[in-house]
Design goal:
homotetramer, alpha/beta, 11 helices, 24% strand
């Protein structure tokens, strides 16, 4: 970790929405050796509010920010559909890039983003935060070191704490933006095994009135690997008890589990039994993971090292998402080779 | 519960193998108001050994035992493929019937068994022991009373502690004999929702050398319900850490989980961390559930009441199993209406 | 375990109150190889009600029951103050004896009871049920096998689920009848180490209005051992969340903990967090332990073997209780040698 | 929380040992709105090493640092016996003061420190970090809001992960420096109830060879409150499984527990059972609490607000420690009025 008298990595943030603001605060306040130097957001005033708090530059045009000499590295947390083009523009400007998931909606876009970063020679990290959560990381280390033997059955799930605006959810969001985390976690846990086939089902159970408008808020995806391993990814947009993210890898000599619903170890025993409060949101559950992934990114930006989670990982997870979408559309198992013949 | 001076229900056991012997001991020693009065097993000496311990009659022919006046109720724990015909024969003899799962391998057989019991007017209970496990039961009660709202995502899993003789596993055992428990649990948890479609994958990951001989030792089955709920059933024949059975029902206003891996609450903290011993077998994990289901059966046998788990439940779970087998064979989702047009 | 065709050990129960009835049912229904053959209770009708359920003899005079040829073994579960004389009378009649705790209120009485059983050559077991609880037993086995090294700090606690009749609690009950369990557990865990000094405090916090009448409903007792180990025993007569019994032994190379508040592993997650139901009473928490201690007793009664928990253990725990009473009375640490110079 | 463009609170650290360095890093890297501006340590080179990493001033004389205009607030983490005089000197220099526990070894010293800060009108915060641990805080909030009713039985324990240099432990360290945390936690949990009497035992069980030299490495302290509540504080200098800090408050309508031994929620199931890794040190277990207490301190330094934990709290805990020392020395219960007649 950097000591504070080195010159800081100056980070320019794109997107001052909920998670962008959170990431900006993290960079400004919790990442040693980093400085939030600029914020860009096309929404009127959005960049300015955050910039005002931290004394940074404010832009409405990301392109202008990318051109600034005051920015060494770019953190992309804008609306999802803009991610790919922003990665490409930031790469062209020679900036180190952290891109929130998803990096792309199509494999072509993923390839364009990866190529742009490669050509520019800049680090490109993707926001798969579970890779930096201590329990998921410890679980993966046990798996990678052989502590469960050959993985046979895997599970990853995401349950978001609520669905505020079911009418505002873009098509296929559950696969491209939510389960993409689970697909990455499963691929990470699976190690050298490669996914070969996907079968997915999805429905609007949280907000059924929006089903006709294309909402899918609940989904289960079955992924088969070339090792024979079988994985389940599962998502819901609305868990009454909060934010629930878990992983499980069962193998020939053991099992690991990751995930925690309790927000603190405090237990309250009363006439009704014993109770624990639950985690209510991603910025609580993954606060340390969010910080850790940005600490890692800033290190890579400083040193030029390749991040632990790159555009290739984003693409690999996207292949599963694309196959899942095809599977839902065509109501059949889909070989990954169909959607990614490369 | 019966007090001990009533005349006991006299139970004749068919099958003196591992689980048959366990059930026989349970009846003889732990079910108030019951008496193990006879044991039948075609294997030379098998019935006699158990009968000798408890001073009961011994038969090699179940049919002879069914004809005995010393038997009020029959407990069928023979090899699985014999179950259906034994149910029918016991019904014909007018005995109350407890049949270990599976009751049948085909829907035709299930229908024959159900019809036989109905015609004879005898109780027919099937050995879905999770229905009598205190945690599964408590979970189901929460679901049934609305405590989690509408079920959206369900999970049931079975991991057996080991696969001693992979060459001796009959075809489709994982669906017909193992996952049949999970199918029943899912249907029970789902309440009024009806299963409509199944997609299943299965492989030989525990003992891959036996795959060509037809072994399937690892499987995941996805079940859709008419309510939109999506369920996963999962099985492995070999968990290094013991016997692992869990259930999870996630719904619109909450979640319940059931299952416990620790064999006692004792924790041992040492230089390597904190550890708990795990449950190693079904007769440990479900000891109380096995007793409870037989207490219930003996009550039904005495009173003529309809058991909580009947041949109809066995048939409903079998429909899912048959669809799963078709799904694996044909590598596609299978509508239940295809395999059970009734 | 006895098989059912051996002639059963015929058990005569003294005391048909709450716990006596429970023990009687356990013997009648859940202890293989045992038979509840008689019940004695001076309260009009009490013995008869239980005897009627199980078809046994009924007495109002225990002495008459002790004289019966129909009784091989005696289970004493009467009011506490009668225990000693009943042990002596049963011993004189040559019966194997199970005595609920406490066996005695004074060391003289304890010595009389022990001597009576010794002279008669009959097994004398005391109802320290934690010795037969699977988690306490597993913890003790870890300690005894060196898994935590030398014990340094020990804890045992009892919290009863409520105090229905604070005016009806005999003096010093918290030490003689409640903490006596904890004293025994601590001595058992401590192995070869001998207790040497006690300091105790106690108060009426649950029902302070009864303090002037002598009620003590809350207590903490500190016990020092000759090994240097320091132990805490703690009791309350009223836990709002149910019945809470725990043990902890911390030593030079580790720790064990025993005890469980949750009544089943089922967890319910809802908008208020995650909850488990708690155990509400001794006959739920220790159901299996109660059965196991009586199975053990019946085995000893049949074979004449010395029980795992004898009158000597009752006396050893009583020494601590007597010292605790002296400590409270005189408000000072009390050496065990003061109260038990032998 | 301060945004980063305000002028930072400049913190001068006294003591560049293990915990001082950790606190210095926390201020430099993890406390928004703070700046580590100076380090003072009499050990040759110690201040320089830390100062070099963060580009701060370095002193061997704390007094010189206190005189600096570059320091707004002082963080005292030197050797314990120097704390009081450093507080007084820092107060005289008009600096806001954070003092690691213990603030003083005698009540006279505590009074001098409190008076010095009061006269100077500077905030004086003491390093009782459990007040800022999320689980202890949540537990205290439940207690304070009536969620357990009247506290009856309290427990606080500290088990340090090891005793590297038993010969270098100053006399009474276990009370003044270790259990002082537990005494504070108990007083905090107890709310308005006041401690009235203490009984303590202590021994050298971890390193018995050092007992003659005055080492006490294991202790249990019983504290009575004027409400009748009875509390236990317990400490060991060597837990093989790591660092173990727990709290428990049992009251008339419930109980809360705080503390967590597992270092992450990850569980590893294998042939030997299920295991979790344990926390190995204070800077892991209380990392967030250490940050939170310094964030709070920096806020108080900026605004002049009175900290949540002041010199008065340090004194109140010290009264218990002094009484405990007297109790051990004189082998009797000690009324707090004896040691603190004020």
């Amino acid at each position: 970790m950097a000591d504070s008298h080195e010159s800081p990595v100056r980070v320019g943030l794109v997107g001052a929405g909920r998670i962008g603001t959170f990431h900006g605060e993290t960079v400004a306040l919790h990442v040693p050796g980093a400085k939030l130097s600029a914020v860009a957001d096309p929404a009127p005033g959005a960049a300015g509010r955050l910039a005002g708090r931290f004394g940074t530059l404010a832009y409405t045009e990301p392109a202008e920010m990318f051109a600034s000499d005051e920015v060494d590295a770019v953190l992309i947390a804008s609306t999802a559909r803009a991610h790919t083009d922003l990665v490409i523009a930031a790469a062209a400007a020679g900036k180190a890039i952290f891109c929130e998931k998803p990096m792309a909606f199509s494999l072509e876009d993923a390839d364009r983003a990866i190529a742009a970063a490669a050509e520019a020679g800049v680090p490109l990290q993707v926001g798969f935060n579970r890779r930096f959560a201590v329990d998921f990381r410890a679980a993966q280390e046990v798996v990678a070191s052989g502590g469960i033997g050959m993985p046979h059955l895997l599970r990853s799930l995401t349950r978001d704490p609520g669905l505020a605006n079911p009418g505002g959810v873009p098509p296929w969001t559950i696969f491209r933006e939510t389960l993409i985390h689970d697909f990455d976690a499963l691929l990470w846990f699976a190690g050298d095994a490669r996914p070969v086939e996907v079968y997915a089902v999805a429905d609007a159970l949280v907000a059924p009135d929006f089903k006709d408008a294309g909402l899918l808020d609940t989904s289960v995806v079955l992924v088969r690997f070339d090792s024979g391993a079988i994985a389940i990814a599962e998502a819901s947009f609305s868990a009454a008890y909060g934010y629930d993210v878990r992983g499980e890898v069962f193998g020939s000599v053991g099992m690991v589990t990751a995930g925690e619903q309790a927000v603190t170890p405090m237990r309250h025993y009363s006439a009704t039994g014993v109770a624990q409060q639950t985690v209510r949101g991603d910025t609580v559950l993954f606060r340390d993971a969010y910080t850790a992934e940005l600490v890692h990114f800033v290190d890579c930006a400083r040193t030029g090292a390749t991040p632990e989670v790159t555009g290739h990982d984003a693409r690999a997870a996207l292949v599963v998402a694309v196959a899942a979408i095809t599977s839902v559309t065509e109501h059949r198992p889909v070989a990954l080779a169909e959607v990614d013949p490369s």
